[in-house]
Specification:
Distance between the termini of chain B: 10 Å
Strand content of chain B: 15-25%
CATH architecture of chain A: 3-Layer(aba) Sandwich
Number of domains of chain A: 1
Order of helices and strands of chain B: EEHEHEHEHHEEEHEHEHEH
Largest sheet of chain B: 8 strands, parallel, barrel
Structural class of chain A: alpha/beta
Oligomer: heterodimer
Distance between the termini of chain A: 10 Å
Largest sheet of chain A: 8 strands, mixed
Shape of chain B: globular
Radius of gyration of chain B: 16 Å
Largest interface: A-B, 41 and 39 residues
CATH topology of chain A: Rossmann fold
CATH class of chain A: Alpha Beta
Helix content of chain B: 25-40%
CATH superfamily of chain A: Class I glutamine amidotransferase (GATase) domain
Helix content of chain A: 25-40%
Strand content of chain A: 25-35%
Order of helices and strands of chain A: EHEHEHHEHEEEEEEEEEEH
């Protein structure tokens, strides 16, 4: 069973719709015991970092997530904010602690020219490492839908975990993988065929 | 590189797709919203905007049902607007499957609503829609309440204020151009584009594919939107994209 974590503010329906299109029956939940029972965990997200972390704490989900993903090594897929939350801290509207599963910080995207507008919003082509299972079977430079103003800046010593990037007047972290932890900055559930393909690749890992 | 976006807009009154001419919505197009989205999904659009222009809230439940139905079929981002006046309403629309919410009248009346929404759902979810009338000689004014109420605000000042309050994007519509087939008001567009750093979606007046190109090249818009024109021809959004690509615009 795939558990889609519901922390209260995001649009979860489109993620569920996309998995259903792949004949999966994901369970939308904020219940810690579902996290313990799940075979895989998906943390989608739009929303503000601090608000989301507060919700996860308030719902007593942080420890169960740590146990499931770091302890039991269940496959995790973070989407958008679900990628940024992996970092140690974020500077979006103040300073907020993240899950800290990856060594890195969430910082504003700082393009080298004003023509690159913020938020980074729309379809951008992604260059990926062929070794990453999520991108298997895709054409060179597939296009995905992004919408964000901040990005996870991974600490240099660990930057081999970056599996895809895109360009928006600066290099933007588009995807990371650390063992069983997968996360993408773009929205596969809103990226038509490429997105569905990526989610299908995640399902195949399970 | 980020692609320029093509966005069809579905304007709904009492749950039916209508044509818009200078913000009057009398002509019902014989298309069910769900059928329209099915087509758009297959026709390479980059995003879909759905606006409820019903005069009162009597058919709101019907509209919300449509949003839910659309979101199940829509594998591109869906922005929803009309009658959005509170954070609760924003959250309700997001739960129904909207990815972004378009707000207009209420944020002029209480600009802090932008900040309140952005701090919970993030700026990228908050699209501030600005309806503008031209008074000639380069003078423009922002109107609210479906184009009926003058505000005394200049579109440039209001865009800057909206950005400062946390808007993630601006949906800029020109009331005089709406349904008038003359193309976007690229002067207005350029003024607003140059005043802010957030992306601008151009709307109002498209009748040829060249108008879409003008919105990007002359107006500087990140995204070009249109409503009526996409209802007239088969594969319209695909044809629009091909035209834009041939004009040298980086589209998906």
């Amino acid at each position: 069973m795939i558990a889609v974590i519901d922390y209260g503010s995001g649009n979860l329906r489109s993620v569920v719709n996309a998995f259903e299109a792949l004949n999966q029956r994901p369970v939308v939940t904020n219940n810690p015991s579902d996290v313990a029972k799940a075979s895989a965990i998906v943390l989608p997200g739009v929303g503000a970092f601090g608000e989301c972390m507060e919700s996860l704490k308030h719902l007593n989900l942080v420890e169960p997530l740590n146990e499931a993903v770091l302890g039991q090594k269940k496959p995790y897929l973070g989407i958008c904010l679900g990628l940024q939350l992996l970092g140690e801290e974020s500077f979006e509207q103040g300073v907020h602690k993240g899950l800290g599963w990856i060594r890195g910080r969430v910082k504003p995207i700082l393009p080298n020219h004003k023509k690159f507008r913020i938020p980074h919003m729309g379809w951008n082509d992604v260059s990926f490492k062929e070794t990453c299972p999520l991108f298997q079977g895709m054409n060179e430079a597939p296009v995905f839908y992004f919408v964000h103003s901040y990005q996870l800046s991974v600490e240099e010593k660990e930057d081999d975990i970056i599996t895809a990037t895109c360009w928006h007047g600066t290099t933007v972290t588009a995807s990371v993988q650390k063992e069983n932890i997968f996360a993408v900055q773009f929205h596969p559930e809103k990226s038509q065929e490429n997105g569905i393909k990526l989610l299908d690749n995640f399902v195949k890992i399970l | 590189m980020l692609k320029k976006r093509l966005i069809p807009v579905l304007i709904l009154r009492d749950g039916m797709v209508v044509q818009s001419v200078q913000f009057k919505h009398t002509n019902v197009i014989h298309w069910k919203p769900l059928t329209a989205v099915d087509f758009f999904n297959r026709w390479a659009v980059d995003e879909i905007v759905v606006l409820d222009v019903t005069r009162n809230q009597n058919s709101r439940e019907k509209f919300l049902d449509i949003v839910l139905g659309l979101s199940k079929k829509c594998f591109v981002p869906l922005a929803v607007g009309g009658w959005v006046g509170s954070l609760d309403e924003v959250l309700r629309l997001l739960r129904l499957g909207a990815d972004k919410v378009v707000i207009n009248t209420e944020v002029v009346r209480q600009p802090d609503l932008i900040t309140e929404c952005a701090s919970v759902v993030g700026s990228q979810c908050v699209v501030v829609s600005i309806d503008v009338r031209s008074h000639g000689e380069g003078r423009y004014e922002v109107y609210i309440d479906r184009g009926t109420e003058a505000t005394g605000l200049s579109p440039v000042d209001w865009s800057k204020e909206a950005q400062k309050k946390g808007a993630g994007e601006i949906f800029l519509n020109c009331i005089d151009r709406d349904g008038f087939r003359q193309g976007y008001d690229t002067v207005l567009l350029r003024n607003v584009v140059d005043a802010v750093d957030i992306p601008i979606i151009a709307m109002g007046g498209v009748f040829t594919w060249q108008h879409l190109v003008d919105g990007i090249v002359k107006g500087g818009a990140e995204a070009v939107a249109a409503a009526n024109i996409f209802h007239y021809t088969e594969h319209s959004t695909k044809k629009a994209k091909e035209y834009m690509r041939q004009a040298g615009i980086d589209v998906r």
